[in-house]
Amino acid sequence: MNIDTILPMLLTVIAAATPLLLASIGELVTEKAGVLNLGVEGMMLAGAVIAFATTVGTGSAALGIVAAMLAGMATALVFGVLTLTLMANQVATGLALTIFGIGLSSLIGSGYIGVPVEKLAHLDIAGLSDLPVIGPLLFGHDVLVYAAVAITFAVAWFLKHTRAGLILRAVGESDLSAHSIGYDVIKVRYMAVLFGGLCSGLAGAYLSLSYTPMWVEGMTAGRGWIALALVAFASWRPWRVLGGAYIFGGVTILQLYLQGSGGIGVPAQVMNMLPYLATIIVLTVISAGPWRGRLDAPACLGKPFRPAS
What we know:
transmembrane, 71% helix, ABC transporter permease, ABC_transp_permease, mainly alpha, cell membrane, transmembrane helix, 13 helices
């Protein structure tokens, strides 16, 4: 393999990793606040179809991206009202949100199948984008690729170096203690849930406007579940989410490359299983191996909180 072969592979790995990174960093913040939202897949689909429909209707990808963020936040708000205000079970509500997102996106997207849309433009940085190898690898992507990395940096800094980040982590570790010293646990959790929805909406927008610039029913193809697994894989640490997203993106592209090469006698269906098989293996290893005690899951993750009257 030479650089002409490796470079396109690396570019596709970055593209495959971006929606995973966006969705998982949003879910990390949500879970750090003690809320388990399994509806990532549904929020991504809502963002994807709304981004596509808005872009087709207005001709503006920027408006499509904004609409995707709002769609993700709206679906996350439904989850928040049901689980934080009405005290519904978080696991069941998250699963219902995914089913709702699948159905809603199919309904809205039925009229957009086969409709073309222009792919998000890559940023052209004068003097940098034209550099050999480094140029296309670091400076030849669209705005959502850079946004995913920037959000990861911002979340890492926010959680570690700000008072608000400390409060969010305190709410996730001991909601009763945080409440007893005057912090509004429900408000903090609402904000975290909305941020998670925003990031999932962005992930969906990237899929329908950049990764495969078209609307395809169920186009997330399980990426929301992989994003959920990535949070546990990363032990709820933003930098590990960044690395894990690119690892899983690499696995996704590897199976496509192996299928395209035709050099191995493995059925295509088995190759398609690779990303999800890798997810199962990773979760099994970190749950049963010597790393289990160092997972650092928020102590109140998934537990309902009812403020004392």
